[in-house]
Every structure is written in structure tokens, then in C-alpha cells.
Design brief:
Strand content: 25-35%
Structural class: alpha/beta
Number of helices: 8
Number of strands: 17
CATH architecture of the largest domain: 3-Layer(aba) Sandwich
CATH superfamily of the largest domain: HUPs
Distance between the termini: 47 Å
Number of domains: 2
């Protein structure tokens, strides 16, 4: 039972999720006593995948694939799976992978399990643990199809180094024509993205106005974190909707989530529940977020956050 992973990249650089799916696939490969092959698309370098257990890379380099297209990428990964006779395909839970997952499942005639958080408890039958009910519970899902597609929940398995010898081969799949034309792509530059961030600093209406957002950015800068906001903040136009996290915004599965001036509506908590450590700073000790948080600070954000920034800067200066 061979294993194929899609090692996602952006602007030629492999993303953190590529190493996480590789780590997961290696753990599964050890169970099944098989090897791991990765498909990369226009990645400048693939050598780092060897640190996480990838034995072989099918390197696709085609300028037609510079812009993501779910149907085309699904075709490419399918052909890679067929070339390697893969019976298990592992992808991440990034926005792009969520678009291509159902298409890839159809292409492979595969059973698809999303939000997977652990290697299978059983491989005969093949059963995986998944998060359910907006990360409030877990369920065991059995996949009975000959080919199995696993969508690994971001930041659930972590990066596990397992250095192996890596073989890289050029791979040239056939690409069908499509009628989708990308007119332009607008991206925020020089910032950590919410999807890839280990730490997320988020602000709510407690900041009182967009003019006070500087302290969120200051804390994010010293922590190397992404910035985010609650739905009311984006609805008011204080921050772009691309930073809105929660059930109706972007899901967050960071190692550390810091909520500043956010009361903790159920929709917001549902979207950030997968984060490992949650910290809340709020003047209202009865705010719902305190019940969900691992650590809470009852205090005025306008006093707490600047002091925290200064302490962190002083601590980093000593390193």
C-alpha cells in the first residue's frame, strides 16, 4: 500500500503544511511498511522533504501551473498517484486543498476523510480519527475504497523529522485545457498568513477603533505572528475580511491564539477551537472567551498589550 502526498508550495517555496503531511505520511508508511512519494508543483527546491521522510519526489515544473486551479491540480496529483500505484493520498487542509479535495476524490474514485488528526488506529479495516462538530469532538471514520484520500487537519500532527535518502524525478503529466482565466491575483506581502502561522494575534471591538490597531501589529511583529480579527471588526471596515477568523471566516489551528478585546461569541470560538493554546485579554471577566481559554488576563488591553510588547522585546534582546 504505497503513499503519495501533495507537498504544497507558494512562489516556489514549500509551505509548512508540506512538511506536516510528509511527517504524517511517514508515520503511516512505517505502519504499512512502505515508502512515501511526494508530488510538487513548481517548487524551486525539494531537498527539505527528505528531513521528513519523503523517499521520492515527482517534481512538476510547468509555467501553466503557476496559478492554482483546483481541477488542473487534481488531474496532476491523480496522475502522480497512478504512476506510483498509490493506495493512500495525503493532502493538507489549506484553502486550496479544500477546493481540490472533492475533485481529486472523484478523479481517484477514492473515499475522502477530511479533518484527520492522527494516523489510523487500524489499517485493516482502514480507520482514521477526525475532528467533528467544529473541533468539539472526535470520530473514527472507516474508508473502504481501494484508494483512500486523507485531508490532514492543519497543525494537528506537527513536524516530525525522519531523515531519509531522497530521489527527485521530473514528472510531466498531461494537462487538459480549461476555460478559466485568472485576470489578477492580489496578495498581502511581507506578512505571515493566518493559514501558515504558528501564532495568531487577534483583535475585537474592544479596541474601540481602527486607529488603535497598531498595538495588535506591534505584538504580532515581536512574536512573528499573523494578525486576525473578529467578524464585527471586519464588518465595521476596521480590518479586511481576509483577516476575519471564526466559523464564518477563516479557521485557525495555530499553536498559540491571542484574543484581545474579543468577547468570544460561539461562532468565533468554533473557528479557533483547534488552536492548541488560547489566551484572552479582556476587561470583562464574564466574557465567554474566558471559559474556552487556557490563560486569561482580566485587564485593559491598552495597558496590558504595550507592557507585554516591551517585556517581550526585552526578553528577546537577552537571547
Amino acid at each position: 500500500m504505497s503513499i503519495l502526498v501533495y507537498a504544497e508550495s507558494e512562489k516556489g517555496k514549500l509551505k509548512k503544511t508540506a512538511f506536516e503531511v510528509a511527517s504524517y505520511a511517514k508515520a503511516l508508511a512505517n505502519q504499512l511498511e512502505t515508502n512515501v512519494t511526494a508530488v510538487t508543483i513548481n517548487a524551486e527546491s525539494t531537498e527539505a522533504l527528505a528531513q521528513y521522510g519523503v523517499d521520492k519526489v515527482l517534481a512538476v515544473n510547468n509555467p501553466q501551473l503557476d496559478t492554482f486551479n483546483a481541477r488542473t491540480f487534481a488531474e496532476v496529483i491523480k496522475q502522480g498517484a497512478e504512476a506510483e500505484h498509490a493506495e493512500v493520498v495525503v493532502i493538507s487542509a489549506t484553502a486550496n486543498c479544500k477546493y481540490l479535495a472533492p475533485l481529486l476524490a472523484v478523479e481517484l474514485n477514492a473515499g475522502y476523510a477530511s479533518n484527520v488528526v492522527a494516523v489510523p488506529e487500524s489499517t485493516t479495516p482502514f480507520a482514521v480519527k477526525r475532528s467533528a462538530f467544529t473541533n468539539k469532538a472526535f470520530e473514527i471514520t472507516q474508508i473502504d475504497t481501494p484508494v483512500k484520500l486523507i485531508g490532514l487537519s492543519n497543525n494537528s500532527f506537527g513536524l516530525v523529522e525522519h531523515k531519509v535518502e531522497l530521489k527527485t524525478e521530473p514528472f510531466s503529466p498531461s494537462i487538459s485545457e480549461n476555460n478559466i482565466t485568472v485576470a489578477s491575483v492580489d496578495k498581502t506581502t511581507d506578512k505571515v498568513t493566518i493559514a501558515d502561522a504558528d501564532i495568531v494575534v487577534s483583535g475585537g471591538r474592544g479596541l474601540k477603533g481602527p486607529e488603535n490597531w497598531g498595538m495588535i501589529e506591534d505584538l504580532a511583529a515581536v512574536l512573528g505572528a499573523a494578525t486576525a480579527c473578529s467578524k464585527p471588526v471586519s464588518d465595521l471596515g476596521w480590518r479586511p475580511h481576509s483577516e476575519h477568523v471564526g466559523q464564518t471566516g477563516k479557521p485557525v489551528a495555530s499553536n498559540l491564539y491571542i484574543a484581545i478585546g474579543i468577547s468570544g461569541a460561539i461562532q468565533h470560538l468554533a473557528g479557533i477551537n483547534a488552536s492548541k493554546v488560547k489566551v484572552v485579554i479582556n476587561t470583562d471577566s464574564e466574557a465567554p472567551f474566558f471559559k474556552a481559554a487556557d490563560y486569561g488576563v482580566v485587564g485593559d488591553a491598552f495597558e496590558v498589550v504595550p507592557t507585554l510588547v516591551e517585556k517581550l522585546k526585552a526578553f528577546k534582546a537577552q537571547q
